[in-house]
UniProtKB/TrEMBL annotation:
It comes from the Eukaryota. The keyword Glycoprotein does not apply. One of its GO terms (molecular function) is peptidase activity. Residues 170-179 have a biased composition (Low complexity). The lineage of its organism: Eukaryota, Viridiplantae, Streptophyta, Embryophyta, Tracheophyta. It comes from Prunus dulcis. This is OTU-like cysteine protease family protein.
Length: 189
């Protein structure tokens, strides 16, 4: 409950259209503390305690946003919201060494539309016969890594282009002309 109230107070103060982001750190946390105390009367938390707790929450909420974004990018046809949430929990656990899961869903509901935490979907990678047609920018899966460089496929040299072929032909004809003039001058001299 305290974490949710902290998120609400942070959102109201930091996204205020009047003062915006022009407050100093100390003044901002003083205002957040006042809003927090309005929501939870009799709280013993100080401005610095709230600031320290926000650092932890901010980091967790950022990791959760990234995990949800990866789950959305990895969406497969026929999956539902539950599958996406399970996959996001797996991504979140992987970033923390697999030791914990995300427990701040109420806080997420408060801040998820904030500019800092909003998820901009990029769409899934297009796949045809298990081969991606375009690179996925966010994929960290070892299954999605490109083939090794020592593959047996050899590249053939490119054929000569039209302009290069014309220049080569023109170079040979001018060579032939100069040789002809040399021979002609040699016979007359």
């Amino acid at each position: 409950m305290e974490d949710v109230s902290l998120c609400e107070a942070w959102l109201q103060i930091c996204h205020c259209p009047v003062s915006g982001n022009e407050m100093k750190f100390f003044h901002m946390w003083k205002k957040i503390h006042a809003k927090f105390c309005e929501k939870i009367p009799g709280s013993t938390r100080t401005e610095m305690a709230l600031s320290s707790r926000w650092k932890i929450l901010n980091k967790e909420l950022g990791k959760w946003r990234d995990a949800l974004a990866k789950a959305m990018d990895n969406y497969r046809s026929g999956e539902n919201l539950t599958n996406k949430m399970i996959q996001a929990q797996m991504w979140f656990g992987a970033t923390g060494g697999g030791k914990k899961s995300f427990n701040h869903h109420e806080c997420w509901e408060v801040v998820k539309y904030c500019k800092r935490f909003i998820i901009i979907p990029t769409g899934p990678a297009v796949v045809l016969n298990e081969t991606p047609l375009r690179d996925s920018m966010t994929s960290d899966s070892p299954l999605d890594s490109p083939m090794s460089q020592d593959s047996p496929i050899e590249k053939e040299p490119r054929p000569i282009g039209r302009k290069a072929a014309k220049a080569k032909k023109a170079g040979n004809s001018s060579n032939n002309n100069s040789n002809f003039w040399r021979k002609l001058q040699g016979k007359t001299a």
